[in-house]
Amino acid sequence: MPEYKRVRILGDPVLREPARPVASFDEHLRELVRRMFAIMRDAGGIGLAAPQAGVPLRVVTIDLGPAEEDAPGVGPLTLVNPVVTAASDEVEPFEEGCLSLPGVSLEIVRPSRVTVEFVDEHGGRHVLEADGLLARVVQHELDHLDGVLIVDRATPAERLRALEQLHEFLLAEGIETGS
Ligand code: NI
């Protein structure tokens, strides 16, 4: 797979770097967003953070796709410089996966609802009240912008098991991580 289409996997330092705020809302940003949607859809993901595409900028793409019985449809969303401004006291566990940790899933406890302020790729400001799967994906992707991965939110035993699962998956698929 060409380098520009590859999702970065645990071990790649770009995943651990705090991402920088976007300052220019120009064609370079919109090209990055298009590339991120293409990578995300290719990989069958519902959310992607720019560091996973090798770019340490505060950009997230989300597409929950059409509505299903237990998941409301949320079309393509681009969050630039997103900030969580409120979170519910109520928390819930949910089994999360991550394109940067293929073959791994971990139960992560997070607030059930969040309010997130962000800018779109054209510079327009938005406030999003998210619950359900959208709240989950938003929080997971915003973690990526701070270099945080789901293994960091797991217990030491879960983390060890997850790293073993990742290793087995990469061996079985013959994927080189460069680390
Ligand atoms: Ni992820």
What does the secondary structure layout of this molecule look like, with pairings?
Layout: H1 27-42, E1 47-49, E2 59-62, E3 77-87, E4 91-96, E5 106-111, E6 114-119, E7 125-130, H2 132-145, H3 156-173
The site of nickel (II) ion (NI) has 5 residues, from helix 2.
Strand order of the largest sheet: 1-2-3-6-7
Counted beta strands = 7
Q: What structural class do helix, strand and pairing data support?
A: alpha+beta
Radius of gyration: 16 Å
Strand residues, percent: 15-25%
Largest sheet: 5 strands, antiparallel
Order of helices and strands: HEEEEEEEHH
Which ligands does the model contain, each kind named once?
A: nickel (II) ion
Helices, by number, come to 3
Relative helix content: 25-40%
Low-confidence stretches: none
Structure summary:
Helices cover 27% and strands 23% of the residues.
Characterize the structure shown:
The chain has helices spanning 27-42, 132-145, 156-173, and strands at 47-49, 59-62, 77-87, 91-96, 106-111, 114-119, 125-130. The protein is α+β, with helices and mostly antiparallel strands and 179 residues long. The strands form two sheets. It has a five-stranded antiparallel β-sheet. Strands 4-5 form a two-stranded antiparallel sheet. β6 and β7 form a beta hairpin. It is globular. Nickel (II) ion binds at residues 98-100, 140, 144.
